[in-house]
Write the structure tokens for this entry.
Amino acid sequence: MPINLEAKTCQWTSQSEALAAFAEFTGKTQSASHIKPLHWYVACRLVVEGGFDPDDIVPRPPFKVERGAGRPPKLHYEPTLSRGGERTVLGGLKTKNVDVVVTRDGIGPVLAVSCKGVTGAFRNLTNRMEETIDECTNLHITYPALVLGYLVLLRANRNIETALGDAASVAANMQDTAEAAKTLTANDIALTEGGEPVAAIVRFHNALRELVGRRGIRNDVSRYEAIGFGLVEMHAPRKNDLLDSFPTEGSPLMLNGFFDTLYARYDERFVVSAPDLSIVTRRLQWDAASPALALANLDYEPRVSA
């Protein structure tokens, strides 16, 4: 079931579909259509892998929970229940529309993810740092226990000569590669001829490293609990895949640890540290026979009951 970029409500979306939508989008980025599928992917993953109730998430994912006495809940795919939009969260300085938010009844927002997609103009990346810090600080002032993630994708644009050289073994795609590359300016190039990220992207990555790693509610409010950073290949033969050479192994911004960090911080604050509330805050474990766990393109392990 291919995703519909014109849809107004959350759809079942895999990581590969979200990356492809970001890499191949050709309209105006002001519409946010290039990054909306990433919102949907995050929301769906928080249910299937994270064990959060879809009723607690905005945008609401297309799932239904079937509960029964004495057995784990079953998760069903139900697209008629999906909803779109963002949740407005009260900040210490101003209200903020946040892309994906989990809210617990009687507690408030407990986990949120802000998604950004950068298609070019990489020399201006440092200008984004101010808004990135402001958003984090603003939300943590009012909700110091909020587990906040920042997920950012960049297009791994290469110059025309490098792009065509990389595509030598896939001549059928050469014309498309050339046409796409013609529209790039020097400021839009993400990778050097040697395949290394340009200096502006390295600086942006290094600056984000200083904003991640918030462990406790008394820690610096301007730090995120987790940050995920990825460059999406724009040329064959690995078009729409994540660049595997940057961030390098050991970077705290690698996407493969992003969700695990969110879950760990959430459990520490809202389950382990508050056992009297655990009946409300504990993440669900799905019945292994749940129909929704058989959805196509599931690219992570679902949270199932032992």
User: Anything to note?
Assistant: DSSP finds eight helices and nine strands in the chain. The chain has two domains: 1-85+277-306, 87-273.
